[in-house]
Amino acid sequence: MKFLTIGALLIGTVSGLAADHIIQGARIIPAKDTSALQRIGAHHQKYPDRRTVTIRPSKNDADDVSTDFLWGIKQANHGGRLLLQKGQTYVIGKKLDLSFLHNIEVQLEGEIKFTDDVKYWQANHFYYDFQKSITFWVWGGQDIKIFGKGTLNGNGQQWYNDFAGQEILDPDNTFYRPILFLTDNATRVSVEGITQLNSPCWTNFFVRTNDISFDNVFINAYSTNASALPKNTDGFDSLNVNGLTVTNTRVDIGDDCFSPKPNTTNIFVQNLWCNNTHGVSMGSIGQYSGVKDIIENAYIENVTLLNGQNGARLKAWAGQDVGYGRINNITYRNIRIENTDNPVVLDQCYFDVNATECALYPSQVNVTNIVFDNIYGTSSGAEGKVVVDLTCSPNAVCSDVHLSQINITSPAGSPAEIICDGIHGDIGVSCQSSSSSS
Ligand SMILES: *[C@@H]1O[C@H](CO)[C@@H](O)[C@H](O)[C@H]1NC(C)=O
Ligand SMILES: *[C@@H]1O[C@H](CO)[C@@H](O)[C@H](O)[C@H]1NC(C)=O
Ligand SMILES: *[C@@H]1O[C@H](CO)[C@@H](O)[C@H](O)[C@H]1NC(C)=O
Ligand SMILES: *[C@@H]1O[C@H](CO)[C@@H](O)[C@H](O)[C@H]1NC(C)=O
Ligand SMILES: *[C@@H]1O[C@H](CO)[C@@H](O)[C@H](O)[C@H]1NC(C)=O
Ligand SMILES: *[C@@H]1O[C@H](CO)[C@@H](O)[C@H](O)[C@H]1NC(C)=O
Ligand SMILES: *[C@@H]1O[C@H](CO)[C@@H](O)[C@H](O)[C@H]1NC(C)=O
Ligand SMILES: *[C@@H]1O[C@H](CO)[C@@H](O)[C@H](O)[C@H]1NC(C)=O
Ligand SMILES: *[C@@H]1O[C@H](CO)[C@@H](O)[C@H](O)[C@H]1NC(C)=O
Question: Among residues 116, 237, 255, 293, which one is catalytic?
């Protein structure tokens, strides 16, 4: 009798706990329940079954499920998976601190959509001094995998409308716009298969992150309002990152396609496609007085760059009161560039420092061991016959810059011109100084 009572009590307590534990509309399915996992679309060819958490989707665009999402992330943390189901939308209307992750998978088959409550997000966000960046959420920790065929939707239209006519570089600008995906203090992060749509500002920014990879991702930003286009929606930006890999990815946005910023090392890019972008750009670095910035060991291969402002670019600051550092060991190989204003650029007199000034205050960012190999296609003709423009500061370190198999034509006429100013040593192709260019 006594035993029975205790047994009943225990059972009552455990099931009571479990009921409290699961929030409304959520489920937790054990890894071994293969058929249930199959039914909800969580059985994946590549990723072995795990304890899988689902949460309720949003009923409409105002139905904020950020509390459910955070609960789901916590339940899936330490070896599980959060599944966001196909055909469902999950609206996030509150900022989220996801800095505590450790061995988690997020399978995104549906859509995560941020609210466009500009007023809320401008008062509630995570802020980074670097270029006055803000974000909806911060992902941090280790062993984080995000995969699926779903969409991360920044819902940027309202932001584009409201920002129209303003400039991010305007020192008086206080209209900050959130970054769609940001990692900070993270190690081993992979993102695969998803679409990233209409970020209000940069699409991806990685800070203090080691070993992050993107594979088979599509990044797109567009506006339905011709007088308010997306701005500064860069594909990839990084700061203090070691190990950055982007493969098999397509980016169609009106700003940098791939642009590692200060202290990014060990970069690998392969099979990247960029349309309408400002190119694949190392830097700019060396902007801030007294600060040392490095970009080193980058291998960029098989990139297609269409309809862009720039193609393959390196940029380091010069002038008074700037920083120092190096851009070293960067290879661009097998790059197809079409209809692009500045197909190949090396600018060690950034930003717009004229020749006199650049000689007087040369860049303190050393540019060394740069390879451009098999770069072909067409310019837009915006720079006349110039298709490659390499401008180093006189009196700065700029050496071991090697070009081979360059075949870029200009609609402005032939032969196309390669400008080389201030580079030490032979660059491997014939070139001329800007002063003698036609
Ligand atoms: C970075 O994350 C680790 C845990 O992964 C934590 O111990 C450390 O405090 C974090 N560092 C910062 C600066 O937040
Ligand atoms: C388009 O953007 C402009 C500039 O912000 C704005 O004045 C206008 O109301 C927007 N149009 C629509 C239909 O939202
Ligand atoms: C180069 O990248 C494109 C995608 O932009 C891809 O279709 C093609 O197969 C890649 N080429 C090689 C040799 O991998
Ligand atoms: C690339 O962008 C142009 C606009 O500049 C657009 O017309 C074209 O459809 C895009 N290409 C693809 C394959 O999406
Ligand atoms: C880059 O790393 C150096 C240390 O090597 C550090 O002093 C500097 O502040 C970093 N730059 C930025 C912009 O964080
Ligand atoms: C240059 O960078 C590549 C990675 O892109 C790396 O494999 C190679 O070891 C680096 N070279 C040197 C001399 O460090
Ligand atoms: C730049 O080159 C100079 C001259 O070789 C060297 O003394 C300096 O250490 C280099 N700077 C960096 C950050 O590598
Ligand atoms: C170069 O820039 C400096 C500083 O901005 C300016 O004072 C100077 O007039 C410029 N020189 C030429 C030739 O444009
Ligand atoms: C350069 O490209 C053009 C256009 O694709 C091609 O006709 C020409 O043969 C190429 N030249 C060389 C030297 O590869």
Answer: 255
